[in-house]
Specification:
Layout: H1 2-14, H2 31-59, H3 62-65, H4 71-80, H5 82-116, H6 134-150, H7 156-187, H8 193-197, H9 200-218, H10 221-249
Helix pairs in contact: 1-7, 1-9, 4-5, 5-6, 7-9, 7-10
Length: 250
């Protein structure tokens, strides 16, 4: 069960950001675009993940695979020799740079949206002449770089696992709070308790909340401690901004 929980946590990280299509929603043609990008993007990614994992498990012994830092390069070397390993490494670099660009753009937009909605300093809500939240991009990139530096691990595999699990844990907390909020909205609706519990959205919210709780409980103590410190650093800022909004409104 412990191995299943650990594997599920890393698997969950692979799909962190599946809601990313909602971030630039106001710049799309409508909700149908967001729906297609979310559903089809997740399904295509799932197919690629599952197919590639099955191939690796069929090629490399489990004893080697669980400690391998470059399993795809190792598989490429087995099929095409050193040339194959080099090509896989190049493809991995290109994929990593592409994913990094997406994350940088997204995190800047998230900070910009929070500042625009009044839950983050208005300083970050300013756009450049090209409608880019430059300040939000720079600050989010700086924070990400600092976090990568202070969480440096002796090997690439350990570094990846720690960062992936920390990212997954922070996302799980957001998803868990979102599920509680969804259930709160459902309970505010009309109908009896049984009718509300029987609604599809209630069942989805309950299952998602249970899944999030299971994943959070399976995390290592050090990961939970670091996540708690990061959240604790943000809480005072949130309350200060809330007090400031109330002061202005009065």
């Amino acid at each position: 069960f412990s191995a299943l929980s650990n594997a599920a946590a890393l698997t969950f990280w692979a799909f962190v950001g599946l809601e990313a299509a909602t971030v630039p929603a106001e710049n799309t043609l409508g909700p149908k675009d967001v729906f297609r990008a979310t559903i089809w993007g997740t399904l295509i990614s799932s197919l690629i993940y599952i197919a590639s994992t099955i191939v690796l498990m069929g090629m490399i012994p489990i004893s080697e695979l669980q400690v391998s830092q470059f399993p795809f390069a190792q598989a490429g070397s087995m099929i095409f020799g050193q040339f194959g390993a080099a090509m896989i490494a190049i493809f991995a670099c290109v994929s990593g740079v592409g994913a990094m660009n997406v994350c940088i753009l997204l995190q800047g937009q998230i900070i910009f949206a929070a500042a625009r909605d009044g839950v983050f300093p208005k300083f970050f809500a300013k756009l450049s002449k090209k409608d880019v939240p430059v300040r939000a991009q720079l600050v989010s990139s700086l924070v990400g770089t600092v976090l990568l530096t202070v969480t440096m691990q002796p090997s690439l595999l350990k570094q990846f696992n720690f960062v992936a699990l920390l990212s997954a844990l922070l996302s799980l907390i957001v998803y868990l709070v979102s599920m509680f909020a969804e259930m709160k909205f459902i309970m505010r609706g009309k109908g009896t308790i049984m009718q509300m519990l029987a609604r599809p959205m209630t069942i989805v919210a309950l299952l998602a909340a249970l899944y999030a709780i299971w994943m959070i409980a399976s995390m290592e103590a050090i990961t939970i401690k670091v996540a708690f410190i990061l959240i604790a650093c943000c809480v005072p800022l949130y309350f200060l901004l809330g007090i400031r909004r109330k002061f202005k409104s009065s």
